[in-house]
Specification:
12 helices, single chain, 36% helix, globular, alpha/beta, D-Amino Acid Oxidase, Chain A, domain 2, 18 strands
Length: 374
């Protein structure tokens, strides 16, 4: 039986472990944290991610912890920025809570297959296997190693030296999930404002509300996280609007406000070696303004499971994975840049719908099949 070591028990690492186990591979997932946990709050899953979860037998469970939502944008006066050239399906996604999804996936993989408090140190490749050395002094021998250890990936640092995560200069995000009590939220609202600010709020399946504010080309930050978010919210709601976003931020305790300087992984010359592969943010961390990082990483996991499960030739499977993914993500970067640099809110909305349409219709598994046939 093929054996795999997956580094990282986030959403992509757990999905990779599940995909490999479903393909008949023996898997151990190593996580440096002492518990299964997730950084962040709400998470949007698009139809292509849900298709992977359906194939892995957990699609209905994932839908049960999510709320169907739609990605339509409004301007700061509350006017809908319509995109009639795209269909309703290009706007639909499922909003889930990151921590709940992590717990669900950990149960599906099997907790006995996850080693907590066990970080990655280094690996050594051999013709017949890869030896993975861990922080507790032990080593695991496997046929393949998957680095799903995020933006600051230690596996990437060895596989592709000199590619540390980089700041997306001036790009910051603030967000929280809070109970809706005290603030009336009649509808979801995603807003394109002025001064490079975007944000909004959506209701979750369990009665809470997820709010988000981000800003491109932000001036230097001052004040508390909550004050920073409130300052940006002023660029998202006209004085005549209902002020729901501001009210939600005001109602959020300071300790629940999450802030991130957005970090990116530069384009990599390669994602794999003969027995090592990168997946998710370890390979392609990008700006969250397209809200698709997790979805795209879940596709990585599904593709790896399919390719490694369909052949005993690990090197050939990983070569096909790379041949599909690097060109695909070069195009993702182009589409993402078009959204980021859209000159008007209307153009932002149109480029965003164009990206989501492309993403849910261009499946990497089909590209992999074509690659193998070629």
């Amino acid at each position: 039986m093929t054996r795999a070591v997956v580094i990282g028990a986030g959403i992509v690492g757990l999905t990779t472990g599940l995909a490999l186990r479903r393909a008949g591979t023996d898997v151990v997932i190593c996580e440096q944290a002492p518990e299964i946990r997730a950084a962040g709050a709400g998470l949007g899953l698009w139809a292509n991610a849900l298709a992977v979860f359906d194939e892995l037998g957990v699609g209905e469970q994932v839908r049960a912890i999510g709320k169907p939502s739609e990605m339509y944008f409004h301007d700061q006066a509350g006017r809908l920025l319509d995109t009639p050239e795209f269909g309703v399906e290009d706007h639909r996604y499922l909003l889930v809570h990151r921590a709940k999804l992590n717990e669900l996936l950990a149960d599906a993989v099997g907790r006995e297959n996850i080693r907590l408090d066990t970080g990655f140190r280094e690996y050594e490749e051999h013709a017949s296997h890869v030896e993975v050395r861990l922080s507790d002094g032990t080593a695991e021998e496997a046929d393949v190693l998957v680095g799903a250890d995020g933006t600051y990936s230690a596996v990437r640092a060895q596989l592709v030296p000199g590619t540390p995560a980089q700041e997306h200069a001036g790009h910051h995000a603030w967000r929280a999930v809070i109970p809706a009590a005290g603030v009336t939220v009649l509808r979801n609202r995603l807003i394109l404002g002025t001064n490079g600010c975007r944000g909004g709020y959506v209701r979750t399946h369990d009665g809470n509300v997820y709010w988000l504010v981000n800003q491109f080309q932000s001036p230097p930050l001052t004040g508390t996280r909550k004050q920073q978010a409130l300052e940006r919210a002023r660029h998202l709601e006209d004085a005549g609007e209902d002020g729901v976003l501001t009210d939600l931020i005001e109602a959020t305790p300071e300790e629940l406000v999450l802030h991130n300087q957005i970090m990116l992984v530069p384009p990599l010359p390669h994602w794999v070696s003969a027995r090592v592969a990168l997946a998710g943010d370890a390979a392609h961390a990008m700006s969250p303004h397209i809200t698709a990082g997790a979805t795209l990483g879940i596709e990585d996991a599904g593709l790896l499971g399919h390719l490694l499960g369909s052949t005993g030739d690990v090197a050939a499977a990983l070569a096909t994975y790379e041949a599909v993914e690097i060109p695909r993500y070069a195009h993702v970067a182009e589409l993402s840049a078009a959204v980021e640099h859209a000159p008007t809110p209307q153009e932002f909305a149109r480029h965003y719908a164009a990206f989501s349409h492309w993403m849910i219709t261009q499946q990497p598994l089909h590209l992999a099949v074509d690659q193998v046939r070629a």
